[in-house]
Design goal:
The structure holds two protein chains of two kinds. Chain A is α+β, with helices and mostly antiparallel strands. Chain A folds into four domains: 104 residues, Sulfite Reductase Hemoprotein, domain 2; 160 residues, 2-Layer Sandwich (Sulfite Reductase Hemoprotein, domain 1), CATH 3.30.413.10; 83 residues, Alpha-Beta Plaits (2-Layer Sandwich); 154 residues, Sulfite Reductase Hemoprotein, domain 1 (2-Layer Sandwich). In chain A, 36% of the residues lie in helices and 17% in strands. In chain A, the strands form four sheets. In chain A, strands 16, 17, 18, 19, 20 and 21 form a six-stranded mixed β-sheet that branches. In chain B, 26% of the residues lie in helices and 20% in strands. Chain B is globular. Chain B has one domain: Alpha-Beta Barrel (TIM Barrel), CATH 3.20.20. Chain B is α/β, with parallel strands linked by helices. Chain B has a six-stranded mixed β-sheet, with helices on one face. In chain B, α2 runs parallel beside α3. Classes of the chains: A alpha+beta, B alpha/beta. Chains A and B meet through α1, α2, α5, α6 and α9 of A and α1, α2 and α4 of B.
Chain lengths: 566, 134
Amino acid sequence: MYRYDEIDQRLVDERVTQFRGQTQRFLEGKLSEDEFRALRLRNGLYIQRYAPMLRIAIPYGLLSSKQLRKLAEIARKYDRDYGHFSTRQNLQLNWPKLEEVPDILAELATVEMHAIQTSGNCVRNITTDHFAGVASDEIVDSFVWCELIRQWSTFHPEFSYLPRKFKIAVNGAVHDRAAVAVHDIGLHAVKNEQGEVGFRVLVGGGLGRTPIIGTEIRSFLPWRHLLTYLDAILRVYNRYGRRDNIHKARIKILVKERGADRFREEVEAEWAHLKDGPATVIEQELQRIQARFTRPQYEALSNQGISTEGPFGAWAKRNVHAHKVPGYAAVTLSLKKTGVPPGDVTTDQMNAIADLADRYSFGELRVSHEQNLILADVRQRDLEALWREARALGLATPNIGLLTNIIACPGGDFCSLANAKSIPVAQALQERFEDLDYQHDIGELDLNISGCMNACGHHHVGHIGILGVDKNGEEWYQIEIGGNQGNTHAKGPGAALGKVLGPSFARAQVPDVIEKLLSFYVSERESEVERFIEVVHRIGIEPFKTAVYGNADQRAARRREPALAA
Amino acid sequence: MATLIKERRVVANPPSLPEGEVIRLEPTDDPAAVAARLPKVSRVEINFPKFGDGRGFSIARLLRERYGYKGELRAVGEVARDHLYYMEQCGFDAFLLRDGEEVDDALAAFDDFSEAYQATVAQPVPLFRRRGAA
């Protein structure tokens, strides 16, 4: 954990005071709905379908057991005894009372937490690889850079009223586990030939209704220039990003409309003025931040064999991950148990997880953008004991990377933007494909569900993506295949957007369609190690289309009959 | 009557006519286009047509930091107490509050935050360079 100093703490406290005043002015009728919206959103507060929703920041997904206990306490006291971990590594409460939110923020501040900039037209929570600091393919510890950027972005006076929200992801390892290509800015740490650290800078990626893979505007930005370069990009965006149409206001549209070359030239021209200015990063600051992070005091251990037998072996195979320190492993606690909305945890579970973190992983944990929790520093010899406890808590479903590890937004059950529900679809799929042998046979598969085209469930980058659509007031589901969040594997495609298979389906049909896709994949794969996504990229989507809808003749015939697919 | 705040004080009776030339910039205007005139003007006004339109913040910084403007820089338009801290950090020193803003509350808003992480016009040395020196 990064531990606040006196200034960090004071700023968070001052924010609570500021928001308390804003809430009061709104309740007294001194702030209009529209204006209060702009202010409450940047404190994570939405007005949802049934109640407000509060999105609490978990900067770059890193959380202490103490903080998790506080979240449990808040969820119990102010909400309905559970919380929802989102794909942006944050925690959402679905039932707080508007007038109590300042009190919730004050409680959060006591454990160095807040809801700053978790929504609104400003720089959002910085996200990163959930294996930062422990991955064997690490180039830099991305947490340090994320904290540097967090401070730079917090209450940035020039960039607090941007055209639209702004998401930055940092990846510090060889493999991209932070989906940098689908962020407004993606920063991928690299080393040059001299061994110096810098960043590859991608701009204008994003999901939502106009999914785009980000464009590289710099192949190597030396680390000292990181903040001045971010200032330059944001200034170009702040000045020229569209403000006439909310759906065209993200930076990706600006990059697209201007063309990557012209956009790059503008950024470089702006940066020429800022480069080597006072915002140039200094070594001393990196060391200061690094020193304020608590670090595990690892024991000198050696790697030991991990059983592959029985239920423990099945869990270890999927939910235990390599660690750069001998004798240690990272463990994913799955929040994707069948019958539970993806990412949901009860307060009892939160407290129990905090205990597990204290006993097995130095009192810290991470939230992954796949909506699971990670204990990053577990002794290999403790794995079996941890597994038993996690299993008793319903947190040991051995499905990480598999079909039922579904990413899903809260959807129409909660969200007022949604066109369709996503949680019941996820649950139907988890029930249909609960059989673990079948899941293991299918192998690694990302299945993502969004309840509307805003794409909070990242359906564009699921190997299979499901999108809820509204047709004349009815809920239908469009299916995409071939999306990929990034070069997570040595083999297979890099970041890619899924392609729509064809006409959409009724909710009840979705499990059958997925089963058809999977059966066809199994018949087409060259070996058991060739993943679904690799097959899609090798043979294209047409054969899959035929497997689901029949060939062109069959499709034409079906159109003359009452539709299966509408 | 909208209140004018200048250098954190209410200007009780603002003169109706400015002494000298005034430039008014809209969010789409390029400050580079007026750079040559800046030494002669007595005031630059930047308009904020909407509560959420933040382009004026960048324009202000450019005027101060790139074009060296030293004179009065006044925010006009939808200027609410919630903007004041940010505006001052970006180099504004005068603020024509929109109608309905409470003056005392607005004056307190300059102190919403006691410190900024970033390099700003008000504090050109970012916090991380000052923290290290302490």
